[in-house]
Amino acid sequence: MRALVVDDELHAREELAALLAETGQVEVVGKCGNAVEALPAIRQLRPDVLFLDIQMPAVSGFELLAMIDPAHLPRVVFVTAHEDFAVRAFEESAADYLLKPVARERLARTVERLRSSPAAAPPAGLAAAIRRIPCLGQRSIKLVDLAEVELVRSGEAGVYVVCAAGEFFTELTLKVLEERAGLVRCHKQYLVNPDRVDEIALGDEPVLRTRGGREVPVSRRFLPRLKERLGLG
Q1: Is the pLDDT of residue 137 over 80?
Q2: Per-residue DSSP letter, 195
Q3: Which pLDDT band holds residue 84 (cuts at 50, 70, 90)?
Q4: Which of 58, 94, 111, 203 could be a cystine partner for 89, CB 3.0 to 4.6 Å?
Q5: pLDDT band at 118, cuts 50/70/90?
Q6: Cα–Cα distance, 19 to 162 (Å, whole number)
Q7: Predicted pLDDT at 212
Q8: Where, residue-wise, is CATH 3.40.50.2300 in the chain?
Q9: Contact at 8 Å (CB) between 190 and 154?
Q10: Which CATH superfamily is domain 132-229 in?
């Protein structure tokens, strides 16, 4: 069983990874210090289970789950020092819930539960709304409020959130942002914030203009739904 450990505390990450290795049933394929690091790790490593801290700076464990494409979502075991989160953890259909400091005997029961029970479908509760988009700075995580977003574009270099302050790289996919952030697809490589649309120039090749003056291509395939979201019939 392949596992990814996500915790902002280095000691907690290392200790849990060591305890998992001791069970002989789990291969720790990666360790991440925050939710933004975890997003690409989940896509690339495809772990079977995610051992996830809940309280982390910038993006919490609960927020992270809403940002993962359901196709890549592993089983989840929440790990936290706060017992108050237990109810919500099981509402999110977590496979289990561990309290810090994690005891060997309790972890062994969790591993046995994971090993013996079949993986369930992604829990419906994870489709929570995204209100802030985490983006990577040089040495920081920038959280862009949805109200500030004009558009999101995808290209060979990745996905970028565009707002008045500039363009910022994000690990979130267009699919997740379309489904959970209320952004509207206008092109296979573009999403727009309907509240930031200024006008649509119709013609052989429709173009959308944002309030910030940016031009965005519009595919005829997506034009009807875009007009509907903008109240244009």
Answers
A1: no
A2: G
A3: confident
A4: 94
A5: low
A6: 42
A7: 95
A8: 2-126
A9: yes
A10: LytTr DNA-binding domain (2.40.50.1020)
